[in-house]
Amino acid sequence: MDERQGNPMRGTRAAIVVAVLTTVTACGTTVAGSGEPVVAPEPAQRSRIDPSPTPTPTPTPPEQVVELPGPQLDAPMTTGASHIVIDSYSWRTTGTGDRSKPPEERYLVLRLTISATQGTVPVNPLYFKVRLPDGTMAEPTMGADGNEPLLGSAELAMGEKIDGVVTFDIPPENTVLVVENELGEAVGAVTIPAPR
């Protein structure tokens, strides 16, 4: 066979080599003759399913609080006399505010207005105590419950008044609010009924 006529397989081999080179080049970063980079597609992200999703917490409903009007009383002090009005009182199972702590028993929240009716009247939340049925005396929480505005310390001239909150952490029983003067002597008392 004449070599110039060529081997009929020679053309076929050349076509296969060209096809292979084109395929290999296309798998690289450039396409032959284009100069443009080829970006391989990123593999599809698999969606991850958490087998144990965290449940959404159910918010605690706010406590329903009924504020009742309270009694009034007069309390003589060493340098004057005061008239005390319990504007409202309520028994609560929770505190209010971010920093409050829950009660050990229940919060008795008293909203008071104190007026000086004679002379000068010192005011201090520690002048208020509660006497429980067993005779135990309880001190105010001094803000641990979060109820505001707290009754502050002051000295009232005749005709002046001040208001604020005094709270006790006590069992929900009939209790007696006791008012003391600046010497620690009981000068007035009034009963606060237990919640119904």
Characteristic terms for this protein:
mainly beta; 1 helix; 196 residues; globular; five-stranded antiparallel sheet
Helix-strand pattern, N to C?
Answer: HEEEEEEEEE
Round the mean pLDDT to the nearest integer and report it. 80
Q: Tally of extended strands?
A: 9
Approximate helicity band: under 10%
How is the topology of this model organized?
Elements: H1 8-26, E1 72-76, E2 80-92, E3 106-123, E4 128-131, E5 137-138, E6 154-157, E7 161-170, E8 175-180, E9 186-192
Antiparallel strand pairs: 1-2, 2-3, 3-6, 3-7, 4-5, 4-8, 8-9
Please provide a written account of the structure:
The chain has 196 residues and is mainly beta. It is built from 1 helix and 9 strands. It has one helix spanning 8-26, and strands at residues 72-76, 80-92, 106-123, 128-131, 137-138, 154-157, 161-170, 175-180, 186-192. Strands 1, 2, 3, 6 and 7 form a 5-stranded antiparallel beta sheet that branches. A 4-stranded antiparallel beta sheet has the order 5-4-8-9, with no helix packed on it. The longest helix has 19 residues, at 8-26. It is globular, with a radius of gyration of 43 Å. Mean pLDDT is 80; it is low at 12-33.
